[in-house]
C-alpha cells in the first residue's frame, strides 16, 4: 500500500509539472505575439495625445518672459575682485 501511495503522488506531481510547463509555454507564446506594428501604433497614439495636450496651453510671450535681462549691475563686489 505504501508503494501505491508513492506512485499516486509521483504521477500527480508529474501531471502538475507538465500542466505548469504547458501553461508557461502558452502564455509566453501569447505575450510574444505583439508585432512591431502594434508597438508603433501605440507610440503614435501616445505622440498624438502629447501633441493635443500641449497645444495652446502656454501662450507665446516673446521677449517679455524675462523682464530682468537688461538689469543694471548693482553688486559692488563684482568690480572689486582682482582675480576675475
Low-pLDDT sequence parts: none
Please count the beta strands (DSSP E, at least 2 residues each): 0
Q: What helical percentage do the residues reach?
A: 55-70%
Beta-strand portion reads under 5%
SSE ordering: HH
User: What's the mean pLDDT score?
Assistant: 78
Total DSSP helices = 2
Q: Radius of gyration in whole Å, from Cα? A: 35 Å
Helix-strand makeup class: mainly alpha
**Largest beta-sheet characterization:** none
Distance between the termini: 97 Å
**Gross morphology:** elongated
Description:
The protein is mainly α and 84 residues long. The protein has two helices and no strands. The termini are far apart. The mean pLDDT is 78.
Features of this protein?
84 residues, 2 helices
Short description:
The chain is 58% helix and 0% strand. It is mostly helical and 84 residues long.
Fold blueprint:
Blueprint: H1 2-31, H2 36-54
Amino acid at each position: 500500500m505504501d508503494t501505491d501511495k508513492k506512485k499516486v503522488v509521483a504521477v500527480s506531481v508529474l501531471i502538475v509539472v507538465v500542466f505548469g510547463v504547458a501553461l508557461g509555454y502558452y502564455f509566453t507564446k501569447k505575450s510574444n505575439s505583439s508585432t512591431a506594428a502594434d508597438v508603433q501604433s501605440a507610440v503614435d497614439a501616445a505622440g498624438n495625445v502629447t501633441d493635443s495636450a500641449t497645444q495652446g496651453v502656454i501662450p507665446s510671450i516673446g521677449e517679455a518672459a524675462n523682464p530682468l535681462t537688461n538689469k543694471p549691475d548693482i553688486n559692488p563686489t563684482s568690480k572689486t575682485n582682482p582675480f576675475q
